[in-house]
């Protein structure tokens, strides 16, 4: 089974990682993706640090993993990562935005859930 876990540093994305950790069985693979839509050095460094920390957590748990840094909007980046990595299950968090805020800026988890062809688990 190939899991793709989308992380962004929020508590909800950490819950998504924990779900992947709970589901993991020997022989599975975990890919960790984060998106950095800007090329500002500080933002890229934060994204790389986040990926390094989660990769280390995977390795410490005996989970083979790879990391993916997408330099695009999260909606596009996660969709591209799913497609490019032959993902079986996408796991991501949701911030639980209200109806108005979700209508104005859109929900990444909802958008991705509606577009991908693989199974999706959304952590709250």
Structure description:
- The protein is of the alpha/beta class and 124 residues long.
- It has one domain: Rossmann fold.
- It is built from 5 helices and 5 strands; from the N terminus they run βαβαβαβααβ.
- The chain has helices at 11-23, 41-60, 74-84, 99-105, 108-115; strands spanning 2-6, 29-35, 65-70, 89-93, 119-123.
- A 5-stranded parallel beta sheet has the order 3-2-1-4-5.
- α1 links the parallel β1 and β2 (29-35).
- α3 packs parallel to α5 (108-115).
- It starts with a strand and ends with a strand.
- Residues 97-106 have low confidence and may be disordered.
Query: What is the fold named in CATH at topology level?
Result: Rossmann fold
Helix-strand sequence? EHEHEHEHHE
Tell me the number of structural domains. Answer: 1
Q: How much of the polypeptide forms β-strand, as a percent range?
A: 15-25%
| CATH evolutionary superfamily | HUPs
Going by CATH, the architecture would be 3-Layer(aba) Sandwich
For the CA atoms, what is the radius of gyration?
Answer: 14 Å
From the helix content, strand content and strand pairing, which structural class follows? alpha/beta
Number of strands: 5
CATH class division:
Alpha Beta
Count of DSSP H/I helices: 5
Helix content estimate: 40-55%
Q: In one word, what is the shape?
A: globular
Largest sheet report:
5 strands, parallel
How many angstroms does the end-to-end distance come to? Answer: 23 Å
| Strands side by side in the biggest sheet | 3-2-1-4-5
Give the uncertain stretches in residue-range form: 97-106
Mean pLDDT, all residues? 90
InterPro entries: Rossmann-like_a/b/a_fold, Universal_stress_UspA, UspA
Protein name: UspA domain-containing protein
Pfam families: Usp
Domain UspA: 3-124
